[in-house]
Amino acid sequence: MIRVMIADDQQLIRQSLRIVLEKESDQIRVCGVAGNGREVIETLDQTKPDVILMDIRMPVLDGVQCTKKVKETHPEIRIIILTTFDDDEYVMDALRYGASGYLLKGISTDELISAIVTVDQGQAMLNPDIEMKLLRLFSQVTRDVHEPEIEVNERYVSELTDNEWKIITEVAKGHSNKEIAANLSFSQGTVRNYLSQILDKLGLRDRTQLAIWAVERRYERRQE
């Protein structure tokens, strides 16, 4: 059973999501709700969520800063950012702090449930156009910032194999393990093993950090 917390400043949305999730999925149980980020932080030890559906714009403590605080103290909790806005910069910050992805409010129930199950399994929920969004943001950021914010074990970058670089490129495009396996003619088990090796080599937390790092580097191996 996946324990889910819903964090949104609108009571109607909290109630609606709770009803929908518990009615439509026997894999999910809503363990708590919160109206702002501070309430999330204050109730974590009691609610013990596996996944948090986090509204990006909330009073008192917004979804970005709440994500940062949650991941600092409970790195095992998965966070999906929910937004009705095309808030690229807010989403980017949340991803940097450890969110597993983001979804626009208004998606179908099946898509939402699928996203929760996906991130609970340790995968990321990156929209298909994540590469363009990240590239656009980093093109702006790098005008003032000379070093990437996602740090890796640089001594191991040169040791990445051709197949590992192929996996990295696919992850940066927001592709799932299933899609990567199909695109590269690998089994899903092989993709998972490659991802584990890559994250271990680079000292990264998850595939979301890997995607951000890959775009920061502009897929250097691919362009050589």
CATH topology grouping of the largest domain:
Rossmann fold
Number of strands: 5
Assembly type: single chain
Provide the gyration radius in Å.
17 Å
> CATH homologous superfamily of the largest domain, by name?
Response regulator
Task: State the order of secondary-structure elements, H for helix, E for strand.
Answer: EHEHEHEHEHHHHHHH
Number of domains: 2
Largest sheet: 5 strands, parallel
Count of helix runs:
11
The CATH first-level class of the largest domain comes to Alpha Beta
Strand line-up in the sheet with most strands: 2-1-3-4-5
Outline the low-pLDDT stretches.
Answer: 141-148
Residue-averaged pLDDT, rounded? 83
- Give the termini separation: 46 Å
If you had to describe this structure to a student in words, what would you say it looks like?
The protein has about 220 residues and is of the alpha/beta class. The protein has 2 domains: about 120 residues, Response regulator (Rossmann fold, 3-Layer(aba) Sandwich), CATH 3.40.50; about 90 residues, Rossmann fold, CATH 3.40.50.2300. Strand 4, helix 4 and strand 5 form a beta-alpha-beta unit. Helix 7 crosses helix 9 and helix 8 crosses helix 9. The longest helix is centred in the C-terminal third of the chain and has 15 residues. The radius of gyration is 17 Å and the shape is globular.
